[in-house]
Amino acid sequence: MKPFRDAAEFLDDPFPAAAPRLPAGWLDLRVYLALVRRRAPVVVATTLVGVALGFGAYLLSPERYAASAILLVDPRQQNVLSSESVLSGFGQDAAAVESQVELITSTAVLGRVVAEEGLASDPDFVSAGLRGRVMQALGLSAPEASSPERDAQIALSALARSLWVQRRGLTYILEVGVTTGDPQKSARLANAVAETYLGELVGARVDATRTANDFLADRIDDLRARLEISEQAVADFRSSNEILDVGQGDTLLDRRVAQLGADLAAARARVIEAQARRDQLALVGERLGDLGSLGEALQSPVVAELRVEYAELERNAAELELVYGPDHPALRQAQARADRAEALIRSEIGRISAGVENELETALRREASLQRDFEDLQGRYRDIGSASVRLRELEREAEANRAVYEQALLRLRETGEQEDLRIADARLVSPALPPLRKSAPKGSVMLAAGGVVGLFAGLAFALFAEATRRGFRTPDEAEAALGLAALGALPRSGGARGGRNRRRGAEAASDEITRAALRGIRARLREAGATRVVVTSVSPGEGKSTLALALARAFAVKGRRTLAIDADGEGAGLGTALGIAGENGFADLMRGRATLGEVLVRGRDGEPAAIPAGSPEALATLADLMEDADLGGFVERLATGWDQVVFDAPPLCAGGVEAGALARAGVKVLLVVEAERTGADDVEQALRRASIPRSAIVGFVLAKAAPETVPAYAGSARRARAA
């Protein structure tokens, strides 16, 4: 980081805000280890207190016994009956099993356990807890009036706190446990919770089945009424439209049409038959000479007999003619008998012909009648076509109502059978047994917990103290926050603990570190060309005068002509430390009331030359005089002949007029910052108040730092103790 800024940067922002105070390498574990080492007493003390509190809690905690029952949540569906259950099983997903865990811890299950086990009158479940007893003992709360409802509610809450339910891995095994002060009671309550849960499952199934049964029973009446209405509508429609079902899907009209068609066909057949017989008889009349075929054609018994007789007479006549000749009287008698037989045949044929004609007329009239009836039925059949469509709609509706009714009736019968079936979808695998050992308190756990809590409390306190402390611990931390160059750090003296040898070694190490730090500061001032330096601080008591004197002596020891000037008229400054306070001094020299020879005190034995602050009258106007006078020329004349000039100026909290004036006169400012006291805001406000530009600041020195934060402290301490 740059310790100085150029003029342009200064004019843009002469006093930049301090950077957030984060230690360098704050993400480094070593930073926190160093913090723990610094705050080790606090961390150790809080850890021991935590262990002690854990031990006390172990002694005061009552003994607790935990007993658990094992349940198996069976995802398989138990089909005792062939019908489907109203309430299905759990399923095989993890959410279903976790839901059973919540059901076991529900108020419905625990409330029944409280009532059945009489926990509302059990002192372990209704008495005030430790916190309540302490509050009542301290008078901070009064005991509430007891009532059955309140006691039951308190017992329910206590049982819920004592109950624990967990699922074993990804299995369907649930462990239901209860923790109380009595092993027998723990086992009894664990079994009671498990059995109540199983009873709750059975009850839920029975209630669901009963509800479904009641619903179906009420629904059956509605479905039956609806079915009756739909079937009556079909019957009324059939009756009003004469659409009567005669079986096999046929209506009465269909049967009548079919029957009438068959009758019409038969009548037509009879007409055709009668016409054929009439035509045959007419043909026979034309061929009367061939009477041999009449019996076969007419198929009449009378004609058949006459035909036989006629044939016999014709044969006799033929024989007589052969025997007696054509003129024989016997032949004439035979022919006369044959003629009479032929006449009879013709008469019978005439009678048959008249009957055939009558039969034909009857057949024709029947055919015409049947034809008219058939045509009437066909017209009527066409008229009721639209009614058949409506009839089919009514029949489908009635059929649907019948199917719903039959299904509901069947389901009602099935649910009635299931209502008495009491099977749970879980079972008790292993009942709880009284534990032989207590589950709490565990001494090792409570001691370890107390120690861990104490340790973390100590670490938290250490971090809080570190975050809220003012000032800086190390030069690097201050350099990062202030944006100024760290020229060195001076350890604080004294405060070493332990034996005499340890204190002596620590003091020797501190002196050696101080000398090494002064040599480093002197070297850095020479590297920066700061031959005129004003040493100041933010607040009094930070060690600026001590540092100014030590620097002046360090330069004088190296053989440089060094002048130490006490410009602090506010208190015990450099002159007081040197023991050279006189009547006249630096203030009198500026006012012209004394010469340099009169105020200069020559150093002896390696001591630097010095100028005291001056008389009280001159010191009263020193600040105004330094503001108004040509301080640059005065300092230039004063520094002539000296290799190093060191001013000791008042703290900046007093106004910083002297330090500011010297800085504007070309004198470099060396700021003293006390470790763990002066913060970045304090420095920024002081520099702003004194109007000291950062370009005039050569750097700062961290004073009164912890010895372990000063570089090379450990090695120096070891060498000092060894010496």
UniProtKB/TrEMBL annotation:
<dbReference type="Pfam" id="PF02706">
    <property type="entry name" value="Wzz"/>
</dbReference>
<feature type="domain" description="CobQ/CobB/MinD/ParA nucleotide binding">
    <location>
        <begin position="534"/>
        <end position="573"/>
    </location>
</feature>
<feature type="domain" description="Tyrosine-protein kinase G-rich">
    <location>
        <begin position="393"/>
        <end position="464"/>
    </location>
</feature>
<dbReference type="InterPro" id="IPR002586">
    <property type="entry name" value="CobQ/CobB/MinD/ParA_Nub-bd_dom"/>
</dbReference>
<dbReference type="GO" id="GO:0005886">
    <property type="term" value="C:plasma membrane"/>
</dbReference>
<protein>
    <submittedName>
        <fullName>Uncharacterized protein</fullName>
    </submittedName>
</protein>
<dbReference type="Pfam" id="PF13807">
    <property type="entry name" value="GNVR"/>
</dbReference>
<dbReference type="InterPro" id="IPR003856">
    <property type="entry name" value="LPS_length_determ_N"/>
</dbReference>
<keyword id="KW-0472">Membrane</keyword>
<keyword id="KW-0175">Coiled coil</keyword>
<feature type="transmembrane region" description="Helical">
    <location>
        <begin position="445"/>
        <end position="465"/>
    </location>
</feature>
<dbReference type="Pfam" id="PF01656">
    <property type="entry name" value="CbiA"/>
</dbReference>
<dbReference type="InterPro" id="IPR032807">
    <property type="entry name" value="GNVR"/>
</dbReference>
<keyword id="KW-1003">Cell membrane</keyword>
<keyword id="KW-1133">Transmembrane helix</keyword>
<dbReference type="InterPro" id="IPR027417">
    <property type="entry name" value="P-loop_NTPase"/>
</dbReference>
<dbReference type="GO" id="GO:0004713">
    <property type="term" value="F:protein tyrosine kinase activity"/>
</dbReference>
<feature type="domain" description="Polysaccharide chain length determinant N-terminal">
    <location>
        <begin position="27"/>
        <end position="116"/>
    </location>
</feature>
<feature type="coiled-coil region">
    <location>
        <begin position="303"/>
        <end position="415"/>
    </location>
</feature>
<feature type="transmembrane region" description="Helical">
    <location>
        <begin position="40"/>
        <end position="60"/>
    </location>
</feature>
<keyword id="KW-0812">Transmembrane</keyword>
<dbReference type="InterPro" id="IPR050445">
    <property type="entry name" value="Bact_polysacc_biosynth/exp"/>
</dbReference>
